[in-house]
Specification:
Helix content is about 40%, strand content about 20%. By secondary structure, it is α+β, with helices and mostly antiparallel strands.
Length: about 600
């Protein structure tokens, strides 16, 4: 529908569109410390363009979420005065409407209902003649603030087209405020995680397989021999790994890709100064927002000192040398496989023996009864293998019920030094170490790593969603027309949107099929998730089935990893298949099955997948 606007109005509308585009680009890319300045400039520009006297932005108080705080105020005309300061209690009716997510448009104060008597008095006192305000909401969530526009010199109208465009401005400001609020929390979480990991001499990292670039903490970068933690790539790290260990590291990486389980690998690193360090890395793959597993996250520990201690222990043949190498460990000696002949004070404390009340011949039974029930089968099996000569030395970690200290973690090394003629142990020595604090720290690091990953994925999803929302108008707002066919079409869209039915939209190229699809999505219960759009005509014919339905590793030459299809990405949301008539005929049956009952199989797989 063509609007009956004179040339001046058309120019103003064009300038408003250009301004909204510029503001969107500026605020999306603005660093958090520049958001406030950009908001103030946006208020000034909007007031100047639309001849509005005052623009006010309120945000929910951090201390009390029920209170709105005026954070940005711009008065356009010199000489306009207002008495006192604005407070959220001055306009209770308007505040309640906005907090409920409704826009307030008043060309005159006479439009205020009787319930808004307090608001009317406050507006008269402030000299407000006309008022327009929007709730600041992001992605269908809760209200984070309010944007208010006021005319102080004279009453004015707020045409629906202008309200619609200014609602876009409100969304732009909402996203900028949310990003600014979220940035300090993410930075603080990452700083806390790096501090915790650094105190444990653990280096945290993540590897993006597509770009082969690392994110590393400073501790991790130092472990690998780099001066800075930025710009590090997998080939650079691989170059520092000892040639004898590179293939083993690559194999561990491949196993992680195939299984999705955590992998652990030890290897040597050579620094620029020639120093060789032993490292052990543990990591597993995480999925991104599209369900693709292409991010390996993990932790690396420098175990050089542990390796050196292990070599010293292997060279030891007596209890005295073991005690020298392994200070502050509980030491014991056993004869004939079951008779304690020595247990030092630290060992007695770890086992929880009462002061000299249990003879040595009963220590073994006392210890065995207090091993955690879930760990007992494993310890019993290791004891058998040590006793029968299958193993000469055992290193194991297990939980132990200490009578005085409760459940603790023990690191236990047992070494048979002498066997009899039948291979039975004659002399066995061992060391016990309390690793409870280490286990608690490992669990804390794991949870912290999961929390950072959760925050990062959530922010990435929200950022992607906000960028998509800001780069397009809502479908309902973008369809303009009052003719009978247009109104009939919109009515049909509103009727089908609440249902879960498949919808066929036909029309020539350029008639707005995608806008109508977006409008149906935005009116549906799936609006909280982004609509997945697929241009069927743009997909290469050999890859169409894999793109739509996903594929398994090895489904065809070049398929190195599993890939999730567009229907899986759209699970719980809406998928828009544009130019569907260009799909090959052999895909029609499979596509019909998906549209009918939501089931399909990956390319190269017989496992049925169900999606909504």
């Amino acid at each position: 529908m063509k609007l009956d606007l004179d040339c001046q109005d058309c120019d103003e509308r064009t300038r408003l569109e250009m301004l909204l585009t510029d503001l969107s680009a500026t605020l999306i890319n603005a660093p958090p410390d520049q958001v406030d300045t950009n908001i103030e400039e946006a208020q000034r520009l909007i007031c100047a363009l639309l001849d509005i006297d005052m623009a006010a932005l309120w945000q929910l108080s951090v201390d009390d979420p029920s209170v709105l705080v005026l954070t940005h105020l711009y008065v356009d005309k010199e000489g306009l005065q207002r008495e006192g300061e604005f407070h959220h209690d001055d306009f209770p009716w308007v505040r309640d409407e906005l907090m409920a997510g409704r826009t307030v448009s008043l060309s005159s104060l006479d439009q205020l209902p009787a319930a808004a008597a307090v608001d009317r008095q406050a507006a008269l006192k402030a000299g407000i003649k006309s008022h327009l305000s929007f709730p600041l909401v992001v992605g269908g969530g809760s209200v984070v603030g309010v944007l208010g526009l006021n005319s102080l010199r004279a009453e004015r109208d707020w045409p629906e087209e202008l309200v619609s465009r200014l609602r876009v401005l409100a969304r732009i400001l909402s996203s900028a405020i949310v990003r600014k609020q979220a940035d300090p929390a993410l930075r603080q979480s990452e700083a806390q995680l790096e501090l915790a990991a650094g105190s444990a001499n653990a280096g945290l990292w993540s590897l993006d397989l597509e770009t082969e670039r690392y994110w590393m903490t400073k501790v991790a970068a130092k472990m690998f021999g780099f001066d800075a933690a930025e710009g590090i790539t997998f080939p650079q790290v691989l170059e520092r790994i000892d040639q004898e260990d590179r293939e083993r590291v690559k194999q561990a990486l491949e196993r992680a890709v195939e299984s999705g389980e955590e992998e652990r690998v030890a290897y040597r690193i050579t620094h620029d100064d020639g120093a060789v360090r032993w490292m052990v890395s543990r990591g597993r793959f995480q999925t991104d927002a599209s369900g693709n597993r292409n991010l390996l996250m993990g932790v690396t520990l420098d175990i050089t000192e542990t390796k050196l201690r292990g070599e010293a222990l292997r060279a030891s043949e007596a209890r005295l040398s073991s005690a020298v190498e392994l200070a502050e460990l509980g030491l014991y000696e056993v004869l004939d496989g079951n008779q304690f002949t020595f247990l030092d004070d630290l060992g007695r404390d770890l086992v929880g023996l009462p002061k000299s009340t249990i003879p040595y011949e009963e220590v073994l039974q006392f210890w065995a009864r207090r091993i955690h029930p879930e760990d007992q089968p494993r310890i019993i099996e290791l004891q058998r293998r040590l006793r029968e000569g299958e193993l000469q030395k055992v290193t194991v970690e297990y939980r132990y019920e200490n009578p005085r200290r409760g459940t603790i973690w023990i690191h236990h090394l047992s070494h048979v030094l002498l066997r009899g003629a039948e291979g039975r142990p004659v002399l066995t020595i061992g060391v016990l170490r309390d690793i409870t604090d280490q286990k608690v720290l490992e669990e804390s690091l794991r949870k912290a790593l999961e929390e950072v990953q959760r925050l990062r994925e959530r922010l990435e999803l929200e950022n992607t969603y906000l960028r998509e929302q800001l780069q397009r108008d809502d479908g309902q707002d973008a369809i303009v027309g009052e003719s009978e066919p247009v109104l009939r079409m919109l009515t049909a869209a509103k009727q089908v949107a609440p249902t879960d039915s498949s919808v066929l939209i036909t029309g020539e190229t350029g008639t707005g099929k995608e806008l109508l699809a977006q409008a149906i999505h935005d009116l549906s219960k799936r609006v909280s998730r982004a609509m997945v759009k697929v241009n069927c005509a743009a997909l290469p014919a050999p890859l169409i089935e894999g793109e739509l339905f996903g594929r398994e590793k090895g489904a065809y030459t070049g398929a190195m990893t599993q890939q999730h299809g567009r229907f899986e990405v759209a699970d719980g949301s809406t998928i828009f298949l544009d130019e569907i008539g260009d799909l090959p005929l052999e895909l029609q049956t499979k596509l019909l099955r998906v549209l009918q009952d939501g089931r399909f199989e990956h390319l190269g797989s017989t496992k049925t997948i169900s999606v909504d």
